Amino acid sequence: MAGPVWAQGYVYFQSGNTLYDTCTGNLGGRAGACFGYVTGVIDGITNAHVRRGSKIPFCIPAGVTKRQVADVVVVFLAANPAERNIDGAHLVRVALIRAFPC
Question: How confident is the model at residue 29, as a pLDDT?
């Protein structure tokens, strides 16, 4: 993975482009890295909202697997190539909100 990218005053380590490449196998079929990143973003968002006492912005149903969540993100990234230059965590969040509304 490349080093951090600075954008709009903050740093991120994974753009939507590198996340898409990782999840689709364009970087050597690194499914574990894809699942780890996506689930880490989910855990981070969930933890931040729980700690603040605010509503989690998506509602993933019980029984949904890591692969399913990663597939949702890949479909979103494939359908929105013009947005893949921005940070991957934001794109994961948007994909989940659209796929799993509360």
Answer: 55
Are the CB atoms for 41 and 76 separated by under 8 Å? no
- For residue range 70-88, what is the model confidence (pLDDT) as tens digits? 999 999 999 999 999 999 9
Q: Looking at residue 77, which CATH number applies to its domain?
A: 1.10.890.40
7 falls within a domain: no
- pTM across the whole model: 0.84
Domain of 65, in residue numbers = 14-99
- Sequence letter at residue 93: R
Cα-based torsion angle of the residue sequence 36, 42, 47, 48 in order, rounded to the nearest 10 degrees: 120
